Amino acid sequence: MGELRIGQVSSIDYANGMIKVLYSDRDGTVSKFLPYLSLNDEYKMPDIGQYVLVAHLSNGSEAGIVLGGYWNKNHKSAVSGKGVYRKELSNTKNMAYIQYDDESRSLVIKADNMQIGNLGSTITFETSDSRILNFSDFKREVSSRWAVHARIGKKPLKQFLGADTDKVTFTITLDARHGIKPRRTLTNIENSLLTGTPAYLVIGGQKVGNGKYVVTSASETWDEIFNKGELVRATITLTLEEYPV
After folding, report:
1. CA 162-163-167 angle, 5° bins
2. 167 φ, ψ to 5°?
3. What Rg value do the Cα atoms of the chain yield, rounded?
C-alpha cells in the first residue's frame, strides 16, 4: 500500500510545478522533486518551509505526489466561518485574494493593481490605489451582409453574403487626479488612429470578437483645464472596427 507523510517544503522547481520535501522525522531525509497537485489547473506554489501532505506510492518511497498544505494552529486562514470562501492569490496573506460570504452574498476581489483589459499597447484599463482608467457605455455591434434583389410583383429577395465587420464604441474619462496623464493618453490614441494600427481588444482576460480592431474615430471633450493650460480632465469616445485578415 501507499503511505501518507507530512514534511516541509525544501526547494521548489517553479517552472515544472515540482517540490522537494524534507522529512524531519526521518533523519532529515529529503525527497527527490515530486509533482505538486494541481486542482482545476490552478497554479500556486507553496512557501519554503511550509508543511505539506505527501502521498507516496506503493512502488517506492521516491515515487509520490504532494497533495498540498493544510490548516493548523501555525497556518491559519485569514478569515473563517460557515459559508465563507477565501482564495489567497499571494503567498503573503491579505496581499491579493478572492473572498465570498454566503450569508451576506458579498464578493470581494483585492489586488493593488487590477487590470480590466487593454487595447493593444495603446490603452490599459485598470483600477488600483494609484491609477484608475476604465470605460463606460460599451457597445458592440455584430451584423451580417445581405444583397437585396428586386422582383416584379413580389417582395425583394435577400441573399446572404457573409459576416460584416464588428463595431465597438465606448467612452473613457481621463482624470489626472486618478493617476492618468490625459494629454499623453490622448496622443497615444490619436497616433493609433492616424497610423491605422490594428490591435486586440481584451476585456477580462478574453479577446473581444475574433480578431483585431482599429480605431476609426475619436471624439474628445476637454472638460477641465488649469489656468496654465494643463489638461486635468478629458472625455473621449472611441469607435473601433474589426480588422479582418
Report:
1. 155
2. -130, 140
3. 27
